[in-house]
Every structure is written in C-alpha cells, then in structure tokens.
Amino acid sequence: MNWPDTKDDIFNPNIEYGTMTDPRDGKTYRTVEVLGQIWMAENLNFADSANFPLLKGNTFCYEDDEEKCNILGRLYKRQAAMYTTMLTASVTPVMNPSRESARTDGTSPAQKMYGN
Questions:
Q1: How far apart are CA 47 and CA 69, in angstroms?
Q2: What is residue 63's DSSP assignment?
Q3: Does an H or E element contain 31, and which?
Q4: Under a CB-based contact definition with an 8 Å cutoff, are residues 25 and 48 in contact?
Q5: Is the pTM of this model over 0.85?
Q6: How far is CA 24 from CA 43, 50, 93, 106, in A?
Q7: Which of 7, 44, 41 is nearest to 22 (CA)?
Q8: Does the CA dihedral 26-41-60-55 come out positive or negative?
Q9: Residue 10 in 3-state DSSP?
Q10: Do the Cβ atoms of 15 and 32 come closer than 8 Å?
Q11: Cβ-based neighbours of 55, under 8 Å, separated by 6 or more
Q12: Is the dihedral of CA 13, 15, 16, 18 positive or negative?
C-alpha cells in the first residue's frame, strides 16, 4: 500500500474544512459539514495512557509506525474506542473563523450546532 506522505495528502483540496481541538491533548482535527451537520473528517489520534490508563495497550498505529498515526489516526480496540467515545462526548468543536459566515437564515454554523 502506498501511504500518504503528509496528513494534507489525504484531504480533498476542493472541500472547505473546519477544525476542532481536543482539549485533552491540544491536537486539532479537521471537520466537514454534511447536510447541516458537523462531522469529523479525520480519525482521532489520542493515546494518553498515563492520564487515561484504559488506553494502555488498547491503541495501535498502522504497521506499529507512530508516523502513520500522525497521518491516518489511531486504531483502537473496542474497549478503548468505547472509552474514547465517552471522553470525546464533552469535546467542543472549534469552528474555523472563515466558515463563520451567516447563513441565509441569519445563523452561523456554530449557532446551528449549539442553538446560540
């Protein structure tokens, strides 16, 4: 398999992405809006097993290569994935300022998402 050289190689340059920052480790991930909903456009790469011991031994990189985790995200065993999902339930996306333009109904994407 040919692996991408950088994270940018896996994204479509014709799509406008937003971002969200994971407050647990400060990593920023791209998001994409689909039919008015914000979705993650890339996989998580969270692996802080010192503060979250349930992750220890339950996360992996493709071919055990840490650089592949930095590009494609991390693989999680079910137990770690369920734990990570619970942890990210409180993560608040950080909207890309360039995407904060008003919609035709006068609301911004953040207002649509959070009802503010």
A1: 10
A2: G
A3: strand 28-34
A4: yes
A5: no
A6: 15, 12, 13, 33
A7: 44
A8: positive
A9: helix
A10: yes
A11: 46, 47, 48, 49, 76, 80, 83, 84
A12: negative
42: nearest Cα among 15, 23, 24 = 15
Per-residue pLDDT of the chain (116 residues; tens, 9 = 90+): 688 899 899 999 999 999 999 998 999 999 999 999 999 999 999 988 888 888 889 999 999 999 999 999 999 998 888 876 565 554 444 444 444 444 445 554 444 544 44
Spatial CA neighbour of 81 closest among 49, 59, 56:
59
Domain ranges within the chain, ordered by starting residue = 7-99
Q: Which two tokens stand for residue 99?
A: 């995407």
Q: Would strands 28-34 and 75-76 be described as parallel, antiparallel, or unpaired?
A: unpaired
pLDDT value, residue 100 = 44
pLDDT value for 32? 95
Of 40, 39, 82, 44, the residue nearest 60 (C-alpha): 44
